[in-house]
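Protocol step 4 of 6: structure prediction from sequence.
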Amino acid sequence: AFGYGVMMVWDVVLLHRYFPQSSESPWTFLAWLDRFLPLALTGLLNRNAFDDDVEFIQATHDKPLTVMYIDLIGLHEINNHLGHARGDVVLCELADAARAYFGDDNIYRIGGDEFVVILEGEDYAHRDALFEKVRAFEHIRDLSAAQPWTQLAASVGMAVYDKTRDTAYRAVFNRADTKMYEQKQHLAPRA
């Protein structure tokens, strides 16, 4: 992994040297590149893209939107007991399911097992039906199953922007996140 990182940095330095369209440093270019590159494992947009898009929405948006936070349940246990390769399968399965429901735009992997979907336009109009489809994954993964890494288990929180209630779009993101964690507590296995 270290060698790959050094190789990538070297490639950026060479790109900047041979294509000096900008007086900015190669590190600025690398930061720009990171913004637009999806995460290699899932193909989804990353946390940097999410932060930039939330800032953009906050500054310029005037349309209705819905935010869904999705948290995989049991990913840590799968990684610990069955290996990270199996955990990667779970991440990719969720990414594929999210793309099937929402397309490729506005789906972000913002943490190890956390995802955010921003619904606008036609997706916004169908938000309740989409939410019910995603809620089908709200259960606890059966780690004793033959292949538990093939089961999608997630908690989901959704919030809708309300002009009369929300003074900022950030409130919608916070509400969706809170609802997802509340649902996760509800789904947590009892000892």
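Step 5 (inspection) to follow. The helical segments are 2-18, 26-36, 47-60, 75-82, 84-102, 121-125, 127-135, 169-187.
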